[in-house]
Amino acid sequence: MGRKVTVATCCLNQWALDFEGNCERILRSIEEAKAHGAKYRLGPELEICGYGCADHFYESDTLLHSFQVLRNLLESPVTQDIICDVGMPIMHHNVRYNCRVLFLNRKILLIRPKMLMANHGNYREVRWFSPWNKLRSVEEYFLPRMIQEVTGQVTSAVAVTSSCLVRSSRLNFVASPHIQMGRDGVEIFTNSSASHHELRKADQRVNLIKAATTKSGGIYLYANQRGCDGDRVYYDGCAMVAINGDVVAQGAQFSLDDVEVITATLDLEDVRSYRGELCQPQLESDFKPCHRVKVDFSLSGCDDVYLPTHQPIEWHFHTPEEEISLGPACWLWDYLRRSGQAGFLLPLSGGVDSSSTACIVHCMCVQLCRAVEGGNSRVLEDVRRVVGDESYHPQDPKELCARVFTTCYMASENSSEDTRNRARDLANQVGSTHMNINIDVAVKGILGIFSAVTGRWPQFRASGGSARENLALQNVQARVRMVLAYLFAQLSLWARGRPGGLLVLGSANVDESLTGYFTKYDCSSADINPIGGISKTDLKRFLLHCAERLQLTALRSILAAPPTAELEPLTDGRVSQTDEADMGMTYSELSVIGRLRKISKCGPFSMFCKLIHTWKDALSPSEVAQKVKRFFRMYSVNRHKMTTVTPSYHAESYSPDDNRFDLRPFLYNASWSWQFRCIDDQVSIIAFLSRSEREKMIRGAARR
């Protein structure tokens, strides 16, 4: 009797509604799995249509085309003699379900609807699908005629092979289903996912999977999507196989490969021995066992004594700086190659944010050259199509940057020579095609129109103007830069005699978006923004990483300079305006506030109550109160800007993205009168206490 099984899981770079491409990638993964001896292949969630179809799930076309792809898979000789587990939407009794479909040799074995829906953060599955609430029950599902012509079968939710039990599972913090399944004899758990990247998240995923099989033993297969499927998130792979708490096979977290298959050979007796000591018999009186579907097929062979099994491996986790250099870069490449454009244009100011975007594009070119060097023919084909040269073979990242990346420094009379030089030096080191543009003529032309109509000419504060004039003069500079960026994106390649246009890249970080510290419809208004979900603190660490690993020495002077928008007149040739002075708080303070607002669900009063402890060594309660109130005023006054903000790479759990992740009003009562009065009352109470009494009260509150 065979006891060893070879199973496969995979990462696929699927694209929403790209049924032809999705089908081709699924078949490639099955072919690779069979080539490695696997008898079972697991794919990502909703891989047939793509996970990010959003409201297209409402359309009957999406269901129709998914079944058409399923028919192609059933009829393909590639899918013979291997159990294929694919994901697609299915409607049953006029209700849509997110399903797994398992088939073998042109016969459907079962359809398994998802039970635990992802409905938090970026996920809105309950909007399109209903959870299957009939635990361990089976219903008949009548297949469409096109499928019946191939199989003629109707099947259900749990399968058994002649040698082991296989069951779909989901990781869940409250009630993980694998516990009950394991006690019912299930030995192989499968998790088909569409899990997106967030900084510092990979270890949580790995630890959850290891813990799932540590508790009650078993083999755990995890499949995930990879890449940008048409939205703000990047699915970061990490396919893996674990057994009894140990990872034995893993895929890459970030990669330019559209298909990655992970296989492992494992001994089922290891599961049985592990459980023999830990697990007790099922004692619940109302226990309902899983429904079994008998299949005349074995995952193991008869003579497998000499077949080696996979051994535990140590998982390598990327640092946050490495994650920034890899995830957003892969996301940019997917967007570029699928958009049909010929490259990127970036307004490069010489500051931390735009320099971070430039470095991410450079990292993209580094990865492309490595992929081509490693023999990835599909990447080479895409690069040639983007640059418009069928004979091109990229070897040097700087040379590739010159073809796909254009930067421009947009100077005004308020720009310093220091930032101009920093932008030029960085452009030279990353290899971009760089331009110097002066916007003063355009700014004066716009102000001339205003003056001709009103008879007034606004002045900066430094020249005696009001705060309103000062802000308007800053905004007109910023908005002119946006208009010029799009003009040069459309026509700069035309001027060089090359076909195509460029995508405009934005460079506003997550902290600036949180406070609204940017001009609406300025250079933050771009096509896409690879750093819009990353904090200023992490971006600085990323630039230091690039300076050391990629020898981009120009970044050191950029990191040493104070962040500034350079929109107000210079003082003796030097910058007189800084970002942190304008905001009234540092970027590190903003990161703390952002996490409290989103992750800890704090309003103004709760945030104050937490920060008087967190910042007690640096700020008095009254100073904390001022920062909290200033933040919420800025946040509420500027929240409307988030409704039009550039689509950004999601990387932070406290992102203020208004599209789907952080749903809030955009018209607030910015006085927050009731909330701020509660804060003021507490400050008054603390002020009347002696220092010892105040510390005693704070310690007591902390204990409670």
UniProtKB/TrEMBL annotation:
GO terms of biological process kind: NAD+ biosynthetic process
UniProt xrefs under SUPFAM superfamilies: Adenine nucleotide alpha hydrolases-like, Carbon-nitrogen hydrolase
GO CC entries: cytoplasm
Pathway(s): Cofactor biosynthesis; NAD(+) biosynthesis; NAD(+) from deamido-NAD(+) (L-Gln route): step 1/1
Membrane-spanning ranges: none
InterPro entries to which the protein is assigned, alphabetical: C-N_Hydrolase, C-N_Hydrolase_sf, Gln-dep_NAD_synthase, NAD/GMP_synthase, NAD_synthase, Rossmann-like_a/b/a_fold
Keyword NAD attributed: yes
Keyword entries, A-Z: ATP-binding, Ligase, NAD, Nucleotide-binding
Record-stated family: In the C-terminal section; belongs to the NAD synthetase family.
Assembly and oligomerization: Homohexamer.
Name the UniProt record assigns to this protein: Glutamine-dependent NAD(+) synthetase
Phylogenetic classification of the source organism: Eukaryota, Metazoa, Chordata, Craniata, Vertebrata
